[in-house]
Design goal:
- This protein is an alpha/beta fold and 160 residues long.
- The chain contains five helices and five strands.
- It has helices at 15-28, 50-67, 86-98, 116-121, 135-153; strands spanning 2-9, 32-39, 73-83, 103-108, 126-127.
- Strands 2-1-4-3-5 form a five-stranded parallel beta sheet.
- Helix 1 runs parallel beside helix 5 (135-153) and helix 3 (86-98) crosses helix 5 (135-153).
- The longest helix has 19 residues, at 135-153.
Amino acid sequence: MIKLTVIAVGRLKEKYLRDACEEYKKRLSAYAKVNIIEIDEYRCSESPSPAEIEQVKNREGEAIAAKIPKGAYIIPMCIEGTQLSSEEIAAKLSDVTVKGYGEIALIIGGSFGISDAVKAQGNFKLSFGKITLPHQLMRVVTLEQLYRATSILNNSKYHK
């Protein structure tokens, strides 16, 4: 059974987001071992300078890097990443496991994104499109797509 680790900046504050994540995590447990690691979100001033934003991303990036499991295939979720269909995400997961990776770590950054250092560690950058999603909602979307991908790989009726 594959291990999926989602490393996400910030805590889920709204109950409906926590409930959605728990539901997809429960569904995913039939196909994968899922671990969600929350990283503290660093705050900055109301109108941050580019330097302050970079500092926040770097501090969050250091915390993220410390939590990436050794030997994991690393997928930073970022807007400049490659866009894949649900079927292609499933094929990517399959390909990664065939190559001998036992764990995949997906990285969701904070309000300002992911540091360049974390992106550089990535094996593959993934994007869910050019739209901007709140990072808390991104966690729900990521878990849903992981569930959809594993359902495709296991010939489930979830994906139509």
